[in-house]
Amino acid sequence: MNRIAAISVGFLACAATPLLAQSVLDPVATVEAQHNRTTRVAQQLWDWAEVGYLETRSSALLQSELASEGFRIESGVAGIPTAFVAEWGKGGPVIAILAEYDALPGINQSASASRDPIESKGAGHACGHNLFGAGSLTAAIAVKRWLESTGTRGRIRLYGTPAEEGGSGKVYMTREGLFEDVDIAIHWHADDENSAAARTSLANRSAKFRFTGFSAHAAGAPERGRSALDGAEAMNMMANMMHEHMPQDARMHYVITSGGNAPNVVPDFAEVFYYVRHPDPKGVDEIWERLENAARGAALGTGTKVAWEVIHGNNPLLVNETLARVMDAKLRQVGGVNYTEEERAWAAEIAKSLGDAAEPLENAARIEPYNKSLGYGSTDVGDVSWATPTVGLRAATWVPGTSAHSWQAVAASGNSIGFKGAQVAAKAMTLMAVELFTNPELRGAARAEFDASRGPNYQYSSLLGDRDPPLDYRE
Fold first, then answer.
1. Per-residue b/e over 128-143, b at no fewer than 16 CB within 10 Å?
2. Which residues contact residue 165 at a Cβ distance below 8 angstroms, ignoring those fewer than 6 apart?
3. Per the domain annotation, does 469 fall within a domain?
4. 117, 120, 131, 144: which could form a disulfide with 422 (CB 3.0–4.6 Å)?
5. Is residue 467 part of a domain?
6. Are 334 and 225 members of one domain?
7. Cα gap 182→470, rounded to integer Å
């Protein structure tokens, strides 16, 4: 057993000492007492369902709740109107909790257990960020009240981080140096299971490729036209061929966001939006170069022109097992999500729609085994994790077997089982924060692992370059 692992095991043993046990009781009770606040805020964010960089009301609501608790708030950080940093306390250490609140466009659903789109809504919380924001808010307030009642020195910060879904809000905040004085950052995510396993993520980059050509009558003068849509489709054909010759853990996907308006008009503009993912940022760069060449070749072959704008880019999560093992212990102390009979009946209806993917409803109450694994999603938390030691967890806010970015996830994120999951996350994060404030040895060991993982002479580099935040990317 290496030194860091040995220290981590020691921390888990220390967690049962009478003094620490006494210190973690009150904050958990505070989280339980805030259930109505968690529900109210999560429901309001779910109702609004504001997309990336346009979360004006959502951000304002979180800031208002924090201001009412005495937090000092700095709004509009990193050049992003809906980003903020809220802080309470004095001195150190500084423990950060991350909060997200952006929705996904194009997925609308009521809180019904059957498919029931809300036609008036153009977006929905299919990734549970309404729960993420509300649960993190509750945890930050609980920690603040614990610091205040115990007289413990230190600062609790809540980072309001917009546009996680393809906007990389945290990358701009990291690039601005907003995490440089943070000792430890804590995050969580909505999911269909409870886990604090050390799961990494894929690095990724996206861009909108824009083809321009010449309009003409598609029947009367086709020879005069040069179809921008042909350019986009030729690029897509070559990109699809690339799939056969990419590393197994890489991912690439796209949508055509503009392709013309009428079949009898040769379109002079087309746009296709691409994502590239790989466990290593260098792998993203290598695939990206091939994708750019495909775009150039497609334009050359179709007599069109192409330009592209990088929209976002995330580094992979740098896991910290010193912290992850302690978070796993805190989550097990809290326990999972238990359904009432009414919630179980609702969840059973959702499960029917999941087909073979459905899992036993009892899984919502269990904590998954601890391990270290590769996750195939991407998150801008990755960039934060290269700036400061970072730890997270996932809570069962959705019916077991539910995929993120689905209507079933939207429905559960606006349901009581989702709110219960947010409370589970808030309790675990609160316990973790209290441990970090009272355990300098844990903070030191986490920093030692962090420094070793980054390596000597590490210099941060973002995958989106030096561009400004794309505040209009969802407009």
1. bbbbbbbbbbbbbbbb
2. 51, 52, 102, 103, 104, 127, 129
3. no
4. 131
5. no
6. no
7. 26
| Mean pLDDT computed over 147-153 | 95
Residue 23: both structure tokens together: 């210190």
CB 211 within 8 A of CB 249: no
- Taking each helix axis from N to C terminus, what angle separates 416-438 and 35-48, rounded to the nearest 10 degrees? 120
d(C-alpha 209, C-alpha 232), whole Å: 8
- What range does the domain containing 253 cover? 203-313
Q: What tokens appear for 198 in the block?
A: 């050390």
Cα separation, 86 vs 72, whole angstroms: 5
Number of domains in the chain: 2
Nearest to 183, CA basis, from 435, 462, 459, 458 = 435
Are 193 and 59 found together in one domain? yes
pLDDT digits (tens, 9 = 90+) for 387-397: 999 999 999 99
pLDDT at 19 over 50: no
Contact assessment for residue 246 and residue 196, using Cβ atoms and an 8 Å cutoff:
no
The burial of 211, by beta-carbon neighbours within 10 Å (0-12 exposed, 13-18 middle, 19 or more buried), is given as buried
Domain-located, residue 468: no
Residue 464 placed within a domain: no
pLDDT per residue as tens digits for the range 348-368: 999 999 999 999 999 999 999
Phi, psi of 408, rounded to the nearest 5 degrees: -65, -35
**Quick one: average pLDDT of 279-304?**
97
What CATH number does residue 264 fall under?
Answer: 3.30.70.360
d(CA 393, CA 389): 14
Whether 196 shows a pLDDT value over 80: the answer reads yes
Terminal Cα-to-Cα distance of the chain (whole angstroms): 52
